[in-house]
Amino acid sequence: MEITRPTSLSEALDARAQDPGADLLAGGTDLMVEVNFGLAKPEHVIALRRIDEIGEVEDRRIGAGVTWARLEESDHRALAQLSRTVGSPQIRAAGTIGGNIGTASPAGDGLPWLAAVDAEIEVASQARGTRRLRWDEFFTGVKRNALEPDEVIVAAVLPERVPSNQHFAKIGQRSAMVISTVSAVVVRDDDGSVRVALGSVAPTPIRALAAEQLINENPQPTDEVLAEFARTVSAEVTPITDHRSTESYRRHAAGVLARRLLERCLAS
Amino acid sequence: MIVSFTVNGEERIANVSGPESLLTVLREELGLPGSKNACEQGECGSCAVVLDGAVVTSCLVMAADCEGSEVTTVEGIGSDRELHAVQQALLDHGAVQCGFCTPGFVVTAAHLFEENPHPSSDEIKEALSGNICRCTGYGAIARALEELAEGTA
Amino acid sequence: MTTSPITRKRVRGGVGDSPLRIDGIPKVTGNFAYASDLYADGMLWAATLRSPHARARITKLDTAPAYAVGGVVLVLTQEDVVGRPGFGMHVPDQPVFADGECNYWGEPIAVVVASDLPTAKLGVEAIDVEFEELEPLTDMEEADARDSQTRRMKIRRGDRDVEGAVVVEGYYEVGQQDQAPLGNEAGLAIPDGDGGVDLYAVSQWVHSDHWQIYPCLDIEPEQVRCHPVGMGGAFGAREDVSMHIHLCMAALRTGRPIKMMYDRAESFVGHVHRHPARMWYRHEADNQGRLVKVEARLILDGGAYESSSNAVIANAAYFAVGPYRCDNVFVDAVAAKTNNPPAGAMRGFGGVQTAFAHESQMDKLAAELGLDPLEIRLRNALGRGDALNTSGQLIEGSLPTAELINELDAMPLAEPLDSDDARHLPGGTGLTTDPRHVRRGVGYGVTLKNLAFSEAFDDYSDVRIVLSPIGVEVYTAAAEVGQGMVTIIQQLAREVLQIEQVAVVWADTGVIGSAGSTSASRQTQMTGGATHQCAIELREQILAEFGGDDLSGEGVWKDGELIVTLHEVCESGPREHEIRYRHPETFATDENGQGDAHPAWAVAAHRAVVDVDPELGLVRVVQIDAVHDVGRLLNPVAALGQIEGGTLQGVGLATLEELVLDRGVIKNANFTDYLLPTFLDAPHVEVKWVEEPERWGPLGAKGIGEPPTISAGPAVAAAIRNAIGADLIRVPILPQHIVGA
Ligand SMILES: Cc1cc2nc3c(=O)[nH]c(=O)nc-3n(C[C@H](O)[C@H](O)[C@H](O)COP(=O)(O)OP(=O)(O)OC[C@H]3O[C@@H](n4cnc5c(N)ncnc54)[C@H](O)[C@@H]3O)c2cc1C
Ligand code: FES
Ligand code: FES
Fold this sequence. Notes:
The complex is a heterotrimer. By secondary structure, chain A is α+β, with helices and mostly antiparallel strands. Chain A has helices at 9-18, 31-36, 68-71, 77-83, 89-94, 97-103, 111-116, 135-138, 209-217, 223-236, 247-267, and strands at residues 2-4, 23-25, 44-47, 61-63, 120-125, 129-134, 139-141, 144-145, 152-157, 165-171, 182-188, 194-199, 206-207. Chain A has a domain at 165-267: CO dehydrogenase flavoprotein, C-terminal domain (Enolase-like, domain 1, 2-Layer Sandwich), CATH 3.30.390. In chain A, helix 9 runs antiparallel to helix 10 and helix 10 packs across helix 11. The longest helix of chain A is centred in the last third of the chain and has 21 residues, at 247-267. Chain C is built from 17 helices and 31 strands. Chain C has a 7-stranded mixed β-sheet. A 6-stranded mixed β-sheet of chain C has the order 9-17-16-15-10-31. At the B-C interface, helix 2, helix 3, helix 4 and helix 5 of B face helix 1 and helix 15 of C. The complex binds flavin-adenine dinucleotide and FE2/S2 (inorganic) cluster (FES) (2 copies).
């Protein structure tokens, strides 16, 4: 196996251009599981952890190489909340948001938040420079995304205004270190409009648009509207039954979770 | 390929041929079997080491990516003659049964106490929620570390 | 002879103390050698090819391509087995390698030996193997219907025609739990150059391994020596042979040391699991809640090979009613044989399954009669002088069920929830739940377990004590799996001999006789009992010889004066004494399951307090209050550790842990999806002891390994029911079950 350890983004893009088949390695918390179980046999690895340019959090940019441990301290409340639930402290010390985006697992806990705040994913290649894709253009299916073989994820780019009233919650069977069976983010703007995103209930993170609409029309929802909101969320998700949970539980829990988060937004 | 890095304060060189983990290299090549292999998927913490200032699961660290890194393993935390306060506390409270989880608890808890000498009981539990112990039910581990948290200056 | 007026102090670290464990220091520093850490010069590695199908005929098995991989030295298949083709705890029904047919997913087909582990794995991948898939039998009831079983058990006691005033019926299921010891299977076999082999592989019982291994190798018994070795837990997973025969075959064939180490995924098929169970119950009681008749039908899935199913099903049947008096008991129990991965020993051993059912039934009865759950248990509490409800055996030893229940009742109840910190709420750091979503529940589990081996098994433990001026050595083959046997042995030897320096020598099968298994909650009583008895006999021999009345590290005393020094006692060499310790004889039961099958029993009484978020089905187990029947408390810290650890395994079964099988294939053979409780899932555990000495064993001590696991699960299940006010018939109780209840 060969390894390239670029110290700048341009070196990384260079290496990527020369060998588009190479595997990118950030914190390794997804890739190395595959390696250890014999599912990935990388021949050339481009290790990204020495690239400062992707390791910073700026105003509206969260570098791909930023670890969950750092994001636990984020000012974006829901981002901090979700970061605290990614794996364990050891996983959060190594795992990055870029890796989460790269893996694009339906259960990736960072993804519903990106969906809820309408983030863009910035990617770069030597050949075509930088491009930005809306989250829903980027995530294309179960563990599939729109990244081209010569590209690197650079950052998640946030819109100009991200409402501070936002809440995240995730259901797993354990109290810690668990893959979500359902996760949700609700963001409420000052005008009362909301955005509702869910994870683990569809091939990609999704927004519950009909449910959002319901609240946008009823910004001070009554109990009946809240109940209707939960039902709408449940109807909008398309979960599956697998060894972690059942379709009907996930559907039910998605509605309950979204309603509770909305209630928290309304209370704060 | 040759990877050189610092392990427990010593310059070490490892001959790495594939994508194997730091855990494998520590155990099979560098003669440091203290870090334990119990899952190789980051889910148990028995392989925890300090890598460049942060506690990580060494089973998920690609050894080839450790060039220039600084690693502390359980062997670097304390010795038989001079135990680290965390080691002594675990010993004193009967928090060691089969002991397979213990190196991971020692590394993770020692790091916790370095960053926060007086963690609350909840903080201790959360900081160690990535370390699975199948024997003790965690009770003795909690008592050991809670007492240490109260006592450390 | 010398005399000297030294004032005597009791030795430190005797019975009742909690001395530091001697293996503790190497364990905290990382220097303790586990089987997976063993290394020998010139060592080769081996890896296993396993069946990808639950049932299939092997239509082609060509090992040549594996030999073509550079570094591969040897490939072993069933054709290479020169001796008896199979092995097994009870009957040798499992072939060393699949013999033309695979009977479960993960069954070993071949082992590849190579210069290192990655190469051995490449060799495994290279083997050219083809299968004709066959329809697997994976449903235990279907297996029962087809008469595919390893043992049927019948209990017929009393009068089937009697009727109670109240009747409750129930159907219950227990999912398949894995022991998940943190250390995976590992071992090293070293050929002795003389046709024999030394094996250092994980084991709860090296002699049982030995008896199973040498016939397959077709060599003399003494040519295989199984050595006790450090291991990362057991809980039943180390009772059966896994890699042992493979290792020995490879070492003998290559003449080189061979190492094997399963990874976690392989470990999930490399050892047996707890039997999943389906159970139908009917309890009848009088108006006061006294049991009149219990009828039960039990099916446990034993998987593809027998392992210890014969004993597990017996336990399920004998403890089907729990620690309650009842004169009319009718149980039909069967261990089904299927194409699921083999089931065998796990902490609680048959008792876990029926405990969930009988405790659920007791709660149903209590509800039916409007009685408090503890009150109904107290009214039926079984004790010394009663007959065991199933086998009719007179209970001569200690069984303080009523005392335990009363003690439990007196323990203060956990404080109400008064925190909005997520770590104290169901859902944990996932932030799912606010305090207003929470409902609290309380539930009980009072259960019974036999101690040591039953049903006429010749159960014994050999111990040799060697006394020299530098101290005491205790030789035993008892497996130290982490439970702290090492300390108990030291304490008992110190207590009797009053000599502080006690070393435990883990001896191999060539050096000492069997200590029996580190299972069935038996080692403290059996090897502890052997140590205690051996030390007493040695002490008496020495006192008699020198006319003394006391012994200590200084020597022999009489009337408070030292009359001979230890040096003088050992003038012509160290003093040795060896004994074989047995518990009271047990017997096979008759065709109705009647007879004196058990040497002793222990009860446990747990109260669980849970917080449930019913809308999301999430549970936090807040506290377990546990009262345990320990006979005599030898080491408080070690006992507490067993109880807390065993309790969490019961909590795990009730709330999280299950192997998910799909037509015989395990879907979650990893730690991402086989969920073990984390630190944040662990309840606070409060423990109280009841000391009513057993009639045998060291100073009346009773085993405590299994009872906590048996009692915790039913208590948690009952507490969840209590919180949500609905019935739950299956463990583990998952969020979808609570939401749907
Ligand atoms: C024990 C455990 C628990 C976990 N728990 C959770 C959890 O609770 N929630 C959750 O969401 N995830 C969880 N994960 C998954 C994982 O930790 C996260 O997805 C993490 O964010 C991955 O980041 P990484 O840096 O480690 O990725 P890596 O493993 O380094 O990379 C992951 C993938 O992304 C690609 N990649 C990485 N960086 C880039 C880049 N800059 N540009 C393009 N591609 C890139 C890699 O090539 C690879 O395909 C868990 C993993 C483990 C082992
Ligand atoms: S072995 Fe690394 S976390 Fe389990
Ligand atoms: S002491 Fe055995 S796993 Fe923790």
